[in-house]
Specification:
Layout lengths: L1 H19 L9 H6 L16 E7 L2 E10 L4 E6 L2 E10 L9 E10 L16 E10 L2 E5 L7 E9 L1
Length: about 160
């Protein structure tokens, strides 16, 4: 009987404690959900497979590397010796790189008109170019003028992801 009385007393007192401290009501307010950042939040960002920094050795000047930085929001930065150029790109990957090459379109927006790795000054402002991208492996690509990957003129190696 004593045990039954003690168990009943504990049950009643625990109910009183929980009633005194009600659980907070959480509403699914979209503005409060989006603004709440915790250490456990995970953000997934998808990027084009071509995203990252690529380097190309210039055939006539092995000491100079031309850099292509494919950034987020389809932004592109090219550096070749003293030349700096910026633009936008659109990359359409192929479902299977062994069968068909992906397509890359580049539109230049700015060029500082300085000498590049070949020693030439080529103004790239507002130039639009289209290339086919032939993947040799995960870290090596070629810029080609044909979709079959036969007429390629530039070999780029991935430097940073």
């Amino acid at each position: 009987m004593k045990q039954l009385f003690t168990a009943s007393l504990l049950l009643i007192s625990s109910t009183i404690i929980f009633a005194a401290n009600p659980a907070p009501i959480v509403k699914n307010n979209p503005s409060s959900v989006n603004n709440a950042n915790t250490a456990d939040d995970i953000t997934i960002v998808t990027r084009p497979v071509i995203y990252g920094l690529w380097g190309m050795e210039v055939p006539n000047n092995k000491k100079c590397t031309e850099f292509y930085n494919f950034k987020t929001a389809n932004q592109l930065v090219i550096n070749s010796a003293a030349e700096w150029a910026t633009g936008v790109y659109e990359y359409q990957p192929s479902p299977d790189n062994d069968i068909k090459s992906g397509a890359l379109a580049i539109q230049m927006k700015f060029d500082n008109n300085q000498s590049d790795c070949s020693g030439h000054r080529t103004e790239l402002n507002s130039d639009v170019s289209q290339y086919y991208i032939h993947w040799k492996d995960q870290n090596s690509i070629q810029f080609c003028t044909s979709a079959d990957g036969d007429h390629c003129f530039a070999n780029l190696k991935r430097i940073l992801p």
